[in-house]
Amino acid sequence: MEEDLISKKELLELTGISYGQLYRWKRKQLIPEDWFIRKSAFTGQETFFPKERMLRRVHNIINMKGDLSLDELAEKLADTTSFAHAHLSLSAAQLLERNIVSKATLDRFGDATAGGKKYTFDQVVHLVAVDGLISKGDMNLDEADGMFRTLTNNTARFAGKSWELFFIRKMGASFFLLAAAPAELIFDEGTRLVSRLSLTDLVEQLNGKLN
């Protein structure tokens, strides 16, 4: 499954940023060079971006640029897997107040028996990952159980490194695959890649809600 794209024109209209801002952020490396994708369109060659990642990045830049210079911001965004949140500890109430995960996800995957429980950075990332796919309707609850179990049981093996999770379906069966990032996988015919999540993107998503 190819990632959804958004055209440059749609991006500027949707976010309200200017052409000059977009390319100034590119020069400052706030937006990765490889996110600028040239493709043929009926009007000729146009520039597109990975939609979800780009909208999240623009949202984070706009939210943080009031407190940081562009150079400081570039350093912060490039450092999303630096484990700056290694000591992160959030309660269920804080997760809900900051709209980090939904109550439905927390009720199913959180530890409801521990009233004053604080969730660690890894636990919050796992909840964010599952919550995102459930809210988009990309997986059912049984699949979400399998994905959460995969993350909980295996991400510790990548300590200090970034990882990617692939959610795939073939002949009605669902599978999850974890790999060190960046991973380049080739699937056989008939396999559908439903979603590809990376620790980097999940941390950036979390950063956006914590700042």
Outline the structure in words:
With 211 residues, the chain is of the alpha+beta class. 45% of the residues lie in helices and 21% in strands. It contains 9 helices and 8 strands. The protein has helices at residues 8-15, 19-27, 51-64, 70-78, 92-97, 103-109, 121-135, 141-154, 199-210, and strands at 5-7, 37-41, 44-50, 89-91, 118-120, 163-170, 173-180, 192-198. The strands form 3 sheets. It has a 3-stranded antiparallel beta sheet with strand order 1-3-2. The model has no long low-confidence stretch (mean pLDDT 85).
**Count of distinct strands:** 8
Strand order of the largest sheet: 1-3-2
Low-confidence runs? none
Let me know the average pLDDT: 85
The arrangement of helices and strands along the chain is EHHEEHHEHHEHHEEEH
Strand percentage:
15-25%
Helix segment tally: 9
Q: Tell me the overall shape.
A: globular
CA radius of gyration is: 18 Å
> Could you say which structural class the secondary elements and strand pairing correspond to?
alpha+beta
> Main sheet?
3 strands, antiparallel
